[in-house]
Amino acid sequence: MSKTIFITGATSGFGKACAHAFAAGHNRLILTGRRADRLEIEASVLREKYNIEILTLNFDVRDRDAVKLAVDSIPGDWRNIDILINNAGLAAGSDLIQDGNMDDWEQMIDTNVKGLLYITKNIFPLLLQSKCPHIVNIGSIAGKEVYAKGNVYCATKFAVDALTRAMRIDMLAHGIKVSQVAPGAAETEFSQVRFKGDLDAAANVYKGFSPLQAEDIANAVIWITELPAHVNINDMVIMPTAQASPGYVHKVL
Ligand code: NDP
Ligand code: 8X3
Fold this sequence. Notes:
The protein is an alpha/beta fold. The protein has eight helices and nine strands. Helix 1 (13-24) packs across helix 8 and helix 3 runs parallel beside helix 4 (102-127). Bound molecules: NADPH dihydro-nicotinamide-adenine-dinucleotide phosphate and 2-hydroxyethylsulfonic acid. NADPH dihydro-nicotinamide-adenine-dinucleotide phosphate binds at residues 8-15, 33-35, 60-62, 87-90, 111, 115, 138, 140, 183, 185-186, 188-190, 193.
């Protein structure tokens, strides 16, 4: 049966792959991101290919007023959301904590932690009409283990891990499933963003091994969200076979 899926960060990487996977299942999609041009192209491609309804919302998750305005603008017949994918996020920089760039810190904390909270609070009332409401938070292996120069990014993903557990408890009485998917190294635009457009530094991250692809994560999200109503996956850590932990990648160069 068709569901309504709200995905943050649908312009790239995991969010875009999730949009494609849910579109292939003929669901209705609400796709969000800051890059309006990409959102519109993406929506046109999916409408054309799958003949589905798509609503696009263009805002920055760090801006709490913009989040509220965007969610308030959702038309009446779309205000029954079944699945929220809290995916928008980033790492900015890779520095020792004592050398850290405070603007990078603010951006990561504001996006990965506060943005996820603003979205969740505003979407919560729209989940209550669903027969099987589900929130999937995209965490990270960086939210399970810290690594050198990962400091603040890791802290934000540890926060996502904690908030996932907290949501599961606080929303229990409303029958909302809350799951976390925590991937290891995946080749998306993540490293290009982290290294601020330095494409060589970004490519170097994935040299010598097979990283995860965005579709691997989308497949997992689809599986988690299609389980029977009485079954919830609390947490799923997904790693490339060649990566044992953030600091241990078997590279053949
Ligand atoms: P991408 O850079 O490919 O995608 C990130 C998405 O987040 C984009 O669609 C971007 O959209 C959106 N986004 C970023 N900042 C904001 C903002 N302030 N407001 C609204 N949207 C925003 O990276 P990934 O797909 O890899 O990352 C998705 C999630 O997965 C992140 O939370 C990341 O931390 C996590 N993750 C990534 C891993 C990896 O190795 N790639 C591993 C584990 C977790 P736009 O720029 O258009 O706003
Ligand atoms: C991204 C994975 O290991 O680069 O969340 O931090 S890692």
